[in-house]
Amino acid sequence: MEGDGEFRRWDELIPDALALIFKNLSLQEILTVIPGVCKSWRKAVTGPYCWQDIDVEQWSQHCRPETLDRMLQMLINRSSGSLRKLCVTGLPNDRSFSFIADNAKSLQTLRLPRSEISDSVVEEVAGRLSSVTFLDVSYCRNIGAPALEAIGKHCKSLMGLRRTMHPLEVIDKQSQDDEALAIATTMPKLKQLEVAYLLISTEGVLKILENCPELELLDVRGCWNVKLDDNFVKKFSRLKVVGPLVVDYFGMKGWDDCSNYSGSSGYLAWDFVAGDVGVDYDDEISDGDWEDDHSMEDVEMRFYDGFDLDNAAFDWPLSP
C-alpha cells in the first residue's frame, strides 16, 4: 500500500487521532500493551491525548489506597491540565482530593462516590473546581451541608448533582434538610438532582423546587418523609420526579452525566425515566477483571513525568 496515497501507516497517525482509537481499549491495554507497539503510540499514551477523560471507577473498587493514589497522580499528570472528566471510586483521603482540584482547570465531570473526603477540604479547594458541571459525591459519609454549600458557591455552572446515600449510612442521622437547603440556596442552575435515601423532608424538597427552576429530574427514591402532591408536581412541566417509592435495585445509575448537556440542545436524555430500567452502562467487564496472570508488579511503567519507572511497581488487582 506504500504507493497508494489514500492510506496512511498506523504509526503516522497524529496523537489526537490515536487517542480517539485507544479510548476503546481497557486501562490495562492502554498502559501495558500500547506503549510497546511503536514510538508514536507510546508518545500518544504518555502524553495528554488519552487522558482528557479518565475513568477508573471500576478498577479503583479493587485496589489498595496507595496504589490508587499513585495511579491517579500518574494519569492526571499525563493529562497536562486538559482533564475534562474524572471518575474514581473511594478516594482514600483529603490529599487525593486536593491533588485533583489542583489539576481541575478544565474539569467538567467529577465522580467521586464512596470517597473519604471531608467538609474542610471541600471548603478549602472548591474554588479550584469552578468549571465542574456534574458532580457525584454519593456515599461520601464525611461530608455534609458545608461541602455542598462550598461547591454551590464556587461551581456556578453546576447542572447535575448526585448525592445518593445508603440507608445504613444515614441511620444515625435525624435529618439532612441542611443539605437540601444548601442545594436550594447555592445551585440554581441544576437540571439533574439525585438525593436517593437522603433524610430530607417535604419542606426541604419544596425549597429546592422553588430555587432551582431549571430542574428536569429529581430522584427522591427512599426519601420516605417526602410527600409531593401529584397536582403540585404537574405545575413543573419539565420536571420528572422519581420516588420516594423504590421500584428498582439499589445503587442503579440510569442517567447520563449532565456534563455533556448543551444549552442549545434544550434536551437531556433521562434513560431511566424513558424506561430503560435495568440498563447499566457500567455492566461492562471492568479493568479490575483482568484474566491474565501478571499484576502491575510485573509491568515496567516508564515515562512517568520524565522519570524511568522500571523499578516502580503498581498492583493490578483482580476481582475476587
UniProtKB/TrEMBL annotation:
Task: Identify the residues that the record assigns to the F-box domain, covering every copy.
Answer: 10-52
SUPFAM superfamilies in the record, alphabetically? Answer: F-box domain (SSF81383), RNI-like (SSF52047)
Top-rank taxon, per record: Eukaryota
**Signal peptide (from-to):** none
In which organism is this protein found? Corchorus olitorius
For this entry, the protein name equals F-box protein FBW2 isoform 1
